[in-house]
Design goal:
Structural class: alpha+beta
Number of domains: 1
Strand content: 15-25%
Helix content: 25-40%
Subunit structure: Interacts with GNA12, GNA13, RND1, RND2 and RND3.
Number of strands: 5
Radius of gyration: 15 Å
Main location: cytoplasm
Distance between the termini: 24 Å
Shape: elongated
GO biological process, one term: proteasome-mediated ubiquitin-dependent protein catabolic process
Protein name: UBX domain-containing protein 11
CATH class: Alpha Beta
Keywords: Coiled coil, Cytoplasm, Cytoskeleton
């Protein structure tokens, strides 16, 4: 795994969604600014953890697909059910 490229692609994806930029959240009394909650990706020597999920070894097919999506410049397809309107 080319960790430098992986991290670069994560930075690029984050910039596409406006990392650190506040969004308007409508409330019953008006609106307020809200920052999106980050979804952590923790890299280990032998696997990853996405969000607050379970440890996933690099040999696992779902982990390989997740990393391949990022390496291809896309958000992992496994996030689509959780974020149907985008990450």
């Amino acid at each position: 795994i080319d960790f430098d490229l992986l991290l670069e692609n994560v930075k690029d994806l984050n910039s596409l969604v406006g990392e650190g930029v506040s969004q308007i959240e409508h409330t019953a009394r008006g609106a307020r600014l809200r920052r999106a909650e980050p979804l952590p990706l923790t890299l280990y020597q032998n696997g990853i953890v996405v969000g607050h999920g379970a440890f996933r070894p690099y040999q696992h097919p779902a982990t390989q697909q997740c990393l391949q999506d990022i390496m291809d410049g896309f958000w992992p397809s496994e996030l689509q059910p959780r974020f149907p309107d985008g990450v």
